[in-house]
Write the structure tokens for this entry.
Amino acid sequence: MTDPFFQPTSGMDLPRFAGIATFMRLPYVPFDHPRIGDVQIGLFGLPFDGGTSNRPGPRHGPRQMRDLSTMIRAEHPVTRLRPFEAARCADLGDAAPNPVEVNDTLDRFTAFARRLKSQGIRPLAAGGDHLCTLPMLRGIAAEAPLGLVHFDSHTDLFPAYFGGKTLTHGNPFRAAVDEGLLDPKRMIQIGIRGTQYDSADRDFAKAHGIRIVTIEEMFARGIPDVMAEARDIVGTRPTYMSYDIDFVDPSVAPGTGTPEWGGPNAFQAMQVVRECAGMNIAGGDLVEVSPPVDPTGGTAWLAVSLMFEMLCVMVTAL
Ligand code: MN
Ligand code: MN
């Protein structure tokens, strides 16, 4: 039964360039809103880039992504799925970061994710840099480790940078495995490429049984074949989907801090998510969109289009 409150504002009623921008023109439902208990999938921002090791900027991602997301319409072009009728979705606002304290921000984001979990809301977050994924997993995977389908040009499995235990956007998944938040046997990382400092990430993956699919393998085998393997690896149990926009070739998605050449085009970028249909997606995020590097908004427009694809997969798992 479609709930009229949770329907996005249609461009037929108010032009899509008008009004206050929320994710996909959904109602804004913060935690103190009377309808918060009815939300099934919550879209929200994680405006933090304190884990960025090179060019910063993703702290500005959620605002630009909200703006561009007003271009999204209600019906999927291929499946004809109408996700906002199939599930009650809302914009929950942003989790509040502390822009000068990494660990404090991680604790705040973890508390936000825990609150979602206790309300039965599945998260679909807009980053922020990739370190923002770690507190999401700390919040929703505390009781049982999740599977992971991860699109990225980097594994983000590197040891601590700068000595010590420093967390960055280069190691959230290593930390998540070490903390027991992800089941390494149910992890697949797709699109990996680019120069590296060393092979410490590959060694970690090998030691734990994490499946890495390089971009060379993806193009050689084809996306449907690789994604069939991904569905086998994650199985039917709850799985997190994490999408780093630098998975996409920088010719189409230049607005990111650590671009790597030789990636998928925009159609292929959407296709990999469509091929996740049937996975039990407990939560997801789209990270590393950096508006200062692409003020045109083209990268953000692709990113929110990918979030719509992710949402359509999440809805079918409810
Ligand atoms: Mn990443
Ligand atoms: Mn990356």
User: Anything to note?
Assistant: The first strand starts at residue 41 and ends at 46. The chain has a mean pLDDT of 97. DSSP finds ten helices and eight strands in the chain. The first helix runs from residue 61 to 69.
